[in-house]
Structure formats: structure tokens, C-alpha cells
Design brief:
Elements: H1 2-21, E1 37-39, H2 40-44, H3 51-58, E2 80-83, E3 86-88, E4 103-109, H4 111-118, E5 126-131
Parallel strand pairs: 2-5
Antiparallel strand pairs: 1-4, 2-3, 4-5
Length: about 140
């Protein structure tokens, strides 16, 4: 019985510390968007000029190749870029065409999910940019 009370106390203390860690100084709840999403708020919090800089500063791992180039996949495992649900052919440098102030959300879609959603040719996943003016 004593052991159970100790365990319950430990669990409750851990839950309290976890909840306390999710609150910013000043008492407002911290908003965590996850590692696969960059919000407009996060983008505005940087000194970035364009979407490429935002990704480079906040989620640089999205820009790294996931597989080696091959005959069937000459772009290697780099993520394909979609802006407002439109695929762009220029690779990650196309992120330079989106001003940081126009970003509503940038989302990384894993290779498996990208293949399911868009078909083959997404070995590096997809970086999906949604702009304020687009869909």
C-alpha cells in the first residue's frame, strides 16, 4: 500500500512538472507546432528573408537529402517543393521565391506520406509552403 502511494505521488509530480514546462514565463500556454510544421508566428520570429532561410534557421534537417541520386531519382533524396499545392520543379532553391512575410505555414511531409499523397518520385519527402494569398 505504501509503495502504491509513493508511485502515485511520483506520477502526479511528473505530470505537474510536465504541465509546468508547457507554460511560458508570464503564464501563457506555450504553442508547440511539432517538428513537421513551421507556423507564420515562428517564421516572423526569425530574421529570414524568404522561405528557404526560414527552413534553414528552424528546421535545417528538411533540406538534407534522404537518399543518394540515381538514374531513376536524379534529384537524389532532396525534398520536393510545393507552394499552395502546386509542385515546383527547381528543387529547394524554389523556396527562395517565397518571401518570409507571405508564409502562412510550412509543413514537411515524410517520403512515405508524400508518395501516398502525390505518387512516386518523393524519396526526400515534400516541403509544403502555404502562403497568405494562396489556398
Amino acid at each position: 500500500m505504501r509503495r502504491h502511494r509513493w508511485l502515485i505521488g511520483l506520477i502526479l509530480a511528473g505530470a505537474w512538472w510536465t504541465a509546468a514546462g508547457c507554460v511560458r514565463q508570464g503564464g501563457t500556454a506555450a504553442r508547440y507546432s511539432g517538428s513537421d510544421v513551421i507556423t507564420a508566428e515562428e517564421a516572423r520570429g526569425t530574421s529570414a528573408n524568404d522561405a528557404y532561410d526560414v527552413v534553414q534557421l528552424l528546421r535545417p534537417m528538411w533540406l538534407r537529402p534522404r537518399a543518394a541520386p540515381s538514374l531513376t531519382n536524379p534529384g537524389g533524396g532532396y525534398a520536393r517543393i510545393y507552394v499552395d499545392n502546386v509542385p515546383l520543379a527547381g528543387g529547394t532553391r524554389e523556396l527562395r521565391t517565397v518571401p518570409a512575410g507571405d508564409i502562412r505555414e510550412i509543413r514537411y511531409i515524410s517520403p512515405a506520406d508524400a508518395t501516398t499523397r502525390f505518387g512516386t518520385g518523393h524519396a526526400g519527402g515534400v516541403i509544403m509552403v502555404m502562403t497568405r494569398s494562396g489556398g
